[in-house]
Amino acid sequence: MGQNKIIIIGHKQPDTDSICSVIGYAELRNRAEPGKYIPARCGEVSPEAKFALETFGVEAPVYVASVEPTVSDIPLDTRSVRQDVPTVDVAGLMDTYDMRNMPITDGDETLVGLVSEYGLARAYVRKNPREQLSLIPMPLETLARILDARIVVPARETLGEGRVYTVIDALHVTLSRMTPNDIAIVGDNEPAQLALISAGVAALIIAEGAPAGERVIDAARSRGASVLATTLDAFSVGKMISLSLPASMIMETDIPTVRLEDSLEYAKGIVSNSKFRTACVVGEDRQHIGLVSRTTLMQEVQKSVILLDHNEYSQAVDGIEQADILEIIDHHRLGAISTLKPVRFLNDPVGSTSTIVANKFIEACVEPTPSTAGLLLSGVLSDTMVMKLSTTTSADIRAADYLAAIAGVDPAEYGPELIRKGMDLDALPKDELLTRDMKRYNLFGRSIMVSQVMTSSFEFAETHAAEIRAELDHLRTTMGVDCFFALFTNVFSNASDLFAAGDEACITKLDLRDQPVRLEGIMSRKKDFIPKFGQMFRQL
């Protein structure tokens, strides 16, 4: 999602108001800071909300499972080196950028290994002193650069794989062993230089700043031998050739990796247990993305979040305890969220959060786009049941009129159609039906879950009563709550049928043994049901 972005997100099991209000508020805030605010959700889009999104041609908010800090929230060192780059160049880059480890990639930027300071030291300190010095296939210009040499005779553009001889004494012994692919290092000894060329050497390296005479140059040209001249002594030339091995020959391949979506806690564990004290960040097919180290993981990182349509930990996105909450906008009862620093907190007892967002547009003298106005209207109509719930206020009616005019929609026609889209109850399994719109409350020491299902009649609840009760018992046990209530609210009859699962004593004291129980005038979970049953729980 990127750094410096602010996530605007609703509650778990998001309803239409939650989905539409985050889109609306993100649009408003992005007017001043384009692209900074990301509308998000932490649950599936309901059929009703999906209908609203499709009606006004808007994509659903991005899904965010958790706001726990991830690898994507920290700066990464994106440097890497191709596997054919000489080791001396890799070491030079590591020194220049003060890197203890360098990722190695192939031509497609796929991670293939890691060169570490420890690996470099082990590769060269453990090298067998009796081992024959050799050269891998390499462009002549690359070798000249490594040796800081001048190309006197460029007979071959690329040198093949061959051994390297330092010709100091016993020239005849060296000549007897040489092949056309070998290279000779020689000093200021023209007879030796000519003899080596005549023997068919692939390249002659004249060390210690010694001159390359005309006879040597002519002989090299006629025999197809390359000649390089360097100020390095013979020992240094050999050492630099040894360092010219490609990164692929000394890299290690058992490297720890993490992904951008991995949590920082997980990444810290991987890095701490790694001998490199580093992990490589990879994408699909091991594409190299960057490098994380203990230093980068020591930074204090938090995702910035604005919460809409709720203010309780039990309803918030996972990882909210580790997030930086900047603002809360809600229309429900006060919950238990606490913060370490002051935040903006707007809690207005209106029918929907979309009403609050619409009023913010009005206060800012900014008009929402027609599509956003249509979505905010959907949120208002959904949460007030087309202005029929007892939670409906004059502010909701004014907001709906304002938004309908911008969106070009008649609320009296659009509202019932929107509500009907969320009432296809037979198409859903009972567990999904009962958990699609549920909220957890803590009332006087008891953990309470309240699910609400909107219906157009009482027929469904009466027909499926046994199945609903059985599923409620199962959900109560699975979720570990004291009581699980389900309201089947008839939007056209101003009443709800109540089902409940709990211990026998609690159900008896609440007078809920015979279910469903018809509750006249109970339409709103937060304004009708919770206040009424909250008082009953106080007396248990």
From TrEMBL:
Its EC number(s): 3.6.1.1
Reaction catalysed by this enzyme: diphosphate + H2O = 2 phosphate + H(+)
Needed co-factor(s): Mn(2+)
Organism superkingdom: Archaea
EC category: hydrolase
Family matches, as InterPro entries: CBS_dom (IPR000644), CBS_dom_sf (IPR046342), DDH_dom (IPR001667), DHH_sf (IPR038763), DHHA2 (IPR004097), DHHA2_dom_sf (IPR038222), DRTGG (IPR010766), Ser_kin/Pase_Hpr-like_N_sf (IPR028979)
Chain ranges of the CBS domain: 73-130, 251-308
GO MF assignments: inorganic diphosphate phosphatase activity
Gene3D superfamilies to which the protein is assigned, alphabetical: DHHA2 domain, HprK N-terminal domain-like, inorganic pyrophosphatase (n-terminal core)
Pfam name, any one: DHH
Keywords: Amino-acid biosynthesis, CBS domain, Hydrolase, Manganese, Metal-binding, Methionine biosynthesis
PANTHER family linked: BNIP - RELATED, MANGANESE-DEPENDENT INORGANIC PYROPHOSPHATASE-RELATED
Protein name as annotated: inorganic diphosphatase
Origin species: Methanoculleus methanifontis
